[in-house]
Structures are given as C-alpha cells and as structure tokens.
From TrEMBL:
Residues of the Pyridine nucleotide-disulphide oxidoreductase dimerisation domain: 478-588
Physiological role: Catalyzes the transfer of electrons from NADPH to thioredoxins TRX1, TRX2 and TRX3, which in turn act as reductants of disulfide containing proteins. Able to reduce nitroglutathione (GSNO), a compound involved in the transport of nitric oxide (NO); however, TRX1 is more efficient in reducing GSNO. Has no catalytic activity towards oxidized glutathione (GSSG).
Lineage: Eukaryota, Sar, Stramenopiles, Bigyra, Labyrinthulomycetes
Organism: Hondaea fermentalgiana
Enzyme Commission numbers on file: 1.8.1.9
Cofactor(s) this protein requires: FAD
Keyword list, A-Z: Disulfide bond, FAD, Flavoprotein, NADP, Oxidoreductase, Redox-active center
InterPro entries listed in its UniProt record: FAD/NAD-bd_sf (IPR036188), FAD/NAD-binding_dom (IPR023753), FAD/NAD-linked_Rdtase_dimer_sf (IPR016156), GSHR/TRXR-like (IPR046952), Pyr_nucl-diS_OxRdtase_dimer (IPR004099), Pyr_OxRdtase_I_AS (IPR012999), Thioredoxin/glutathione_Rdtase (IPR006338)
GO molecular function, one term: thioredoxin-disulfide reductase (NADPH) activity
Name this protein carries in UniProt: Thioredoxin reductase
UniProt xrefs under PANTHER family: GLUTATHIONE REDUCTASE
Length: 606
C-alpha cells in the first residue's frame, strides 16, 4: 500500500475531533510505512468554521461538510466526519487503532496516546555546534529559564544561564529564581497561608483550644519568608552547578542571532556566542499611569516591606490584586480594592462575583468603577489618592494593574524581532521568527502567565532541541487557582465562554452551595458560602467543559481534574466517581441540581 497522508482537522474542545485525532495519531504510530498523519487543531468552534471553507476548496467531495472534525486523505480526497473516519481506519487498516469512548485517549491495546501536533524545530542551516562558546544561552533564570537550562544540560548540551534582577523603582531586589520564587507564587502562597492561619485561630476556641488571637507581626513574617526564599535562591545555584550549567549573574541583550552581550553589576561588558538562544525574561509590574503613580509600590515590593503596610489601597482587580488584598485583610489591615471594571477578567463572572462577595464578608472594601487620577504625599508621609468620585488617605498604595514583558532593553531590534503593546514576543511552539532564537514563559504573546506553564515550555523546548522530541506542550485544560480569602480553583471553560461558544441551549450547569464540614462547628463561619459548578455540553454525552470551585483548598481539589477534562470526562463519569467522605472534593461528585431547574442549590446534611 503506498504511504498516504491522513489529515484530521477540528475544534480542539470537540470530543469527536479528539477521538478522530487520537485514531489518526495511532495510525501513524502503528503503520509508519503506510501513514503520515496531520492533525490540524483549531482553538475554537469559531476558528474551525472560519478555517473550513478554504480547506474544502481543495477537496473532492464534502462541499456540505460543516461539523467538527473533518478528515481527508492526501490533501484531496474527502473522508468525512468522525464516524466516517473511524470506518475508514477500520476498513483500510484492519481495526488496529480503533479509538476509545469519549476520546479519553486509551487505545484498544490499553496504552494511552494523545493528540500529536508536530512542533519539530526548524533547522538553523547557518549554525553548527562547536563554532560557538555554548550550545545554548538562556537569558532569564526564572521558572522557564531554569527548567530549560537544567534539562538541556542533562541532555548533554553546553549551557549558560544569565539571570540579573534590576531593582524595582522602590529599590527592592532579590536573588536567582525569577518572579515565582522571589516576588510571586511562593511568597504570595506563604502570605496567604499566614492569613488563613489567623482564621484557623478564630476557629480554635470552638474546637476546644484555649487560644487568643493576638496581633499579626508583619516584620516576623517578612523575615521568615525572606529567609526561606534565600534558601531557595541558594538551592538553585547548587542545582545549576551540579547539572553543569554555567550561571552568570549578568544582564543579557542580543547583539545578533548568535551573540549575547553581558553586563555585570559593576558595568563590565562581555560577549558570548551560542548556537541557540532562549529568551525567558518574564515580566515586571506595569507602573501606575497617573500623576504621582510612582508613589505606589508593586508586588515586587510587597513581600519585602520592612514595616507593616497599614491602611492599603490595592489598584486592580485580577489575580495579583485580589490575592494581595485578601492576605492584607486577613492580617487585619484596612484594605480597599479599586476596581476599574470587573473582577477577574477572563474568569467565570458568576464565580468572580462570588470571590468578591466572600472577600467583602471577610472585611475587604471595594471601590467600584474607579481609577486613580492622582496620588500625592501628605505632610505626615501618607498618600492621598484622588479618583473621580472621591479621595482618601492611605499608608500604602499597591499597583496591581497587570504586567509588561521585560523585553525593552533586550536588543530585539538587532535581530529584527518585534514585540506587541505589552512587550511580548511572538513565538510558535517557542520558536521566534529568527531560527536560532526561542522564547518561553511570560514574555511570549498569548501564553498563560503561570509557573508550571513556563516550566513545561522550558523542558519541552530543551528536549525538542537536544533529543529530537517533536510534540509541543499540550496547553489544553490547564487548571488554575486564585488564592483569595476563599480560594477559587477552575479548569476548562467558564459558563460565560461555554454559552458564547455553543449557545445557551447547548449548555447545562450543575451546581451547589455547600458548607465544608470543618466550618460547621466554629460560630464565626457563615453557612453555604462555598459554591461549585460544572459546565457541560448537553449533546455531547454531557461532556464536561468547565469545573469551578470556591472553597478552602480549591486549588488542591481542582488540580487533578485538568487531566479528566483533557480526556473528555462526561458528567456521568463524574457522578460515578466514588468520593472521599467527608471532603470538599466529594462535593464535585455529588452534584445533581441543574441550574436550568431554577431551584436553590443548597446542600444540607451529609
Ligand atoms: P520569570 O519567573 O519572571 O523569570 C524571568 C527572569 O529573567 C527574572 O529573574 C529576571 O530578573 C530575569 N531577566 C529579565 N531580563 C533579563 C536580562 N536581560 N538578562 C538577565 N536576566 C534577565 N503563577 C502560578 O502558577 N501560580 C501562582 O500562584 C502565581 N502567583 C503569582 C503571584 C504574583 C504576585 C505574580 C507577579 C506572579 C504569579 N504567578 C503565579 C506567575 C508566575 O510567577 C510567572 O508565570 C512565572 O514566574 C513566569 O516564569 P518566567 O520564567 O517566564 O519568568
Ligand atoms: P492582569 O493583567 O490579569 O489584570 C490586571 C488588572 O488591573 C485588571 O483587573 C485590570 O482591570 C486592572 N487594570 C489595568 N490597568 C488599570 C488601570 N490603569 N487602572 C485601574 N485598573 C487597571 O494582571 P495581574 O497582575 O493580576 O496578573 C498577571 C498574571 O500573573 C496573571 O494573568 C496570572 O497569569 C499571573 N498570576 C497568577 C497567579 C496564580 O496563579 N494564582 C497569581 C498572580 C498572578 P480591567 O479588567 O478593567 O482591565
């Protein structure tokens, strides 16, 4: 049989596409001499519909095809949709690659396969290993850069990693490890936990403990967290040394496609050359763009303040703003959040509102529909903030109004690379338009700004560079959590996005309010504040499109559902999962109440 090219294209959230794509991928694995597989992933139903007419032009047959997926052979012969393609696979290849129910990716031989899109690296024809000081130079030693450098070095490459921290405008500086370790996830989660510890102390008397909640000691927390971070900074240096990565505490910029200028803290300049360069410079907080904006600190300073912030205004209403406002409230500071439009843009808006309500109940104030117009120092060293409808005096103003990629001084113009309005670089599967230059993590356009994403991009790219791995990072169904007073964890589509994408009639939502068992005894806890909902696509076996949870430890609970959504979990699968009693996680398997019933979804009893 001559080798055929089999193409399957579809909307990535469609389970029929996933099933057909899995089978197509298996065909190439099982019959490499007979089949070359092309999987074309369109990120939404809308994108698929826009792509389809052009594809149909080149095919014989299929003029009326509208659904996802579409399958064809040798870029010319139309096969059909999912069922037609499975039939084609069975008849042409004897059934060896029949796909599973719901596209879970478990083939009939029991081994798991996933949708494989090719991300083979382009060959940089001009460059040969050995002509350069290093096989790989990485600019930026944060989550992504560290992961890439360690992986590449383990795979035998000669690697140098540059990491240099330019102090914040308020003079805060830190060590190796990037945003997550020094001024992001790690201190944030520890401060969040410190605030929760205060709540547990309020629970304690009702559980029989003779405890009195005293004042919070900010200096002690900062000191202890700082010491832990220093141990992490040191640990990274040791790891790099052990893995044979050359660590250079220097600021890097590009001179050409293979040459990096380095500047150390004394201003001494040098150049190093590399066959390949990865840009992993992350981002920095966007300054507050109003008169006196420089008086505001940012998250780069928050975790290192030598004295307690006191009465604080947090400007912004997304992850950073709500998380910081929550722990400040938890420590007992008078905290207000200034919201320009909505809370948590891009998240499920019902959940976002519930996050806000829970924060308000815990004592955070909200100034809605406002932006600061002017900040000025008062005679007693505080800050007066003016907005259209009012003004107030604060001890601290925290600007949490988004981040800009740290690319402005990277010399991108020397290699012809451009950035977008927030400094981000365009890269496809981490490959920029310059063959020898790559970009990963927060500095990449359209990339989720999350540590595990940056780490996975770094490891994946190193493997594609040095052991010929071909598949890109699978960015579907990435779970995330907002560590506000009451945590919000989610994975998949928001209800709003699902309704927009598929239409109101196609969507059902199962939901409930509930009270975690540990909240039933302490008198200060309110009942039925926690909430969960699961968004399903009715006509696709009630496939789960999104899961949302507002509760203590929501991040811990929602984490594992990332894999369930990736492999097409249905609502029935979730209902059939036997929970662990009595846990918060169990609530997700006990849902029965459809939102469309209009009934109150409030749980009582076990
Ligand atoms: P970074 O970690 O930012 O690292 C870039 C490094 O490059 C920095 O060390 C920088 O100093 C260095 N650098 C920059 N330019 C140069 C240069 N020219 N030469 C040399 N070095 C240079 N994500 C989560 O997943 N969970 C969370 O809970 C979470 N919480 C967060 C809380 C806050 C307050 C913030 C701000 C972010 C949080 N994030 C969280 C996001 C997460 O920190 C980032 O997505 C992640 O750090 C990105 O990694 P990166 O490698 O792309 O960049
Ligand atoms: P975002 O870009 O997510 O949000 C910026 C916020 O600032 C929005 O609420 C926006 O309002 C508001 N804003 C922007 N400009 C102004 C202005 N001029 N005046 C008033 N408000 C303004 O930024 P974040 O810094 O919160 O987060 C950055 C990224 O870091 C996140 O996307 C996330 O990936 C990562 N992160 C992850 C965390 C986690 O995993 N738990 C925690 C913290 C950060 P509007 O909606 O009106 O535009």
């Amino acid at each position: 049989m001559p080798r055929v090219k089999v193409s399957v294209a579809g909307d990535t959230s469609c389970s029929f596409f996933q099933r057909a794509a899995n089978v197509a991928a298996s065909l190439e694995l099982l019959f490499p001499d007979q089949v070359e597989t092309e999987i074309i992933e369109l990120e939404s139903r809308k994108a698929y519909k826009a792509w389809l007419p052009k594809a149909l032009e080149k095919l014989k047959g299929g003029e009326d095809h509208t659904s996802s997926p579409i399958a064809y052979v040798d870029d010319s012969e139309y096969i059909g949709g999912c069922d037609d393609f499975l039939e084609y696979a069975r008849t042409q290849f004897g059934g060896g690659a029949a796909g599973p129910r719901n596209g879970h990716g478990v083939g009939n031989n029991g081994s798991r396969s996933k949708v494989v899109a090719s991300a083979k690296l382009s060959i940089d024809a001009e460059s040969k290993s050995g002509e350069f000081d290093y096989d790989l130079v990485i600019i930026g030693g944060g989550s992504g850069g560290l992961a890439a450098s360690k992986e590449a070095s383990e795979l035998g490459a000669k690697v140098a990693l540059l990491d240099f921290v330019v102090p914040s405008p308020h003079g805060t500086k830190w060590g190796l490890g990037g945003t997550c370790v020094n001024v992001g996830c790690i201190p944030k989660k520890l401060f969040h936990h410190a605030a929760l510890t205060g709540e547990f102390m309020q629970d304690a008397p009702d559980f029989g403990w003779d405890v009195q909640v005293g004042a919070h000691n900010w200096e002690k927390l900062v000191d202890n967290v700082r010491n832990y971070i220093k141990s992490l900074n040191f640990g990274y240096k040791v790891q790099l040394r052990e893995k044979g990565v050359k660590y250079l505490n220097k600021l890097g910029s590009l001179i050409d496609a293979h040459t990096v200028k380095t500047v150390d803290k004394k201003g001494k300049e040098e150049t190093i050359s590399a066959q390949r360069i990865i840009i992993a410079v992350g981002g920095r907080p966007r300054p507050l763009d109003c008169e006196g904006g420089e008086l505001a600190i940012s998250s780069d300073d928050m975790f290192y303040l030598d004295s307690a912030p006191g009465k604080t205004l947090v400007v912004g209403a997304s992850y950073v703003a709500l998380e910081c406002a929550s722990f400040l409230t938890g420590f007992g500071y008078d905290t207000s959040v200034m919201v320009r439009s909505i809370l948590l843009r891009g998240f499920d808006q019902q959940m976002a509102d519930k996050v806000g309500e829970a924060m308000e109940k815990l004592g955070t104030k909200f100034i809605r529909g406002a932006v600061p117009r002017k900040l000025e120092k008062t005679d007693d060293g505080r800050i007066r903030v003016h907005w259209d409808e009012g003004s107030d005096v604060f001890d601290t103003v925290l600007a949490a109004v988004g981040r800009l990629a740290d690319t402005s001084k990277l010399g991108l113009e020397n290699v012809g690379l451009k950035t977008n309005h927030v400094g981000k670089i365009k890269a496809t599967h981490s490959q920029t338009e310059v063959p020898s230059i790559f970009a990963i993590g927060d500095c990449v356009e359209g990339m989720l700004e999350l540590t595990p994403v940056a780490i996975e991009l770094g490891r994946n790219l190193a493997q594609r560079m040095f052991v010929g791995r071909e598949d890109p990072v699978d960015l579907r169904s990435i779970p995330t959590a907002v560590f506000a007073g009451l945590e919000y964890g989610c994975v998949g589509l928001s209800e709003d996005a699902a309704r927009e994408e598929y239409g109101d009639d196609a969507i059902e939502v199962y939901h409930t309010h509930f009270t975690p068992l540990q909240w039933t005894v302490p008198h200060h806890r309110e009942y039925n504040v926690c909430y969960t909902k699961v968004v399903v696509l009715k006509d696709d076996d009630e496939r789960v499109l999104g899961m949302h949870l507002l509760s203590p430890e929501a991040g811990e609970v929602i984490q594992a559902y990332g894999i369930s959504l990736k492999y097409g979990m249905t609502f029935e699968d979730l209902r059939e999962l036997v929970g662990i009693h009595p846990t918060i996680g169990e609530e997700l398997c006990l849902l029965t109440e459809p939102k469309s019933s209009g009934k109150d979804a409030i749980k009582s009893g076990c």
